Amino acid sequence: MEIADTRPANRNKRTICLPFSQDNYESNIHNPDDFRGCIDKRIELFPELFPPEMANGYQMKDFYFSRKQSVWSRRIKVAGVAYTIRPSFILPYHVGFVDEIEKAMFLRKFKRP
User: Does the pTM of the predicted model rise above 0.70?
Assistant: First the structure.
């Protein structure tokens, strides 16, 4: 009987944060062709945000609904690895919207509660 490998997988960064306006994101998220067009534009503008394997192409994988913020997220597959596309108006891990928290984050700069 073979022993299972219990070491955690090296997941690295599997989220790509892209600049989107909320209206643009919500109007394109459900149509894979429109969303691919949005991603392709951002690849041209911001190639440093994407993994290097992106030059070989990518596939649309799936999309899911975040119950935390009531926002749809889409995933792409690059070289066999799935990446979540997160819009810039959502904080990491979908903990909140940037415009709701930006003033509080500014006050943290001055060590205010």
Answer: yes
Torsion of CA 39, 94, 69, 88, to 10 degrees: -40
Give the distance between the most distant pair of CA atoms in the chain: 59
Strands of the sheet containing 81-87, edge to edge, are 15-18, 81-87, 71-78, 59-66
Pairing state between β 81-87 and 71-78: antiparallel
At 32, phi and psi to the nearest 5? -60, -35
More confident residue, 79 or 94: 79
Give, as one character, the DSSP assignment of residue 63.
Answer: E
In the predicted structure, residue 12 carries a pLDDT above the cut 80: no
C-beta separation of 74 from 53 below 8 A = no
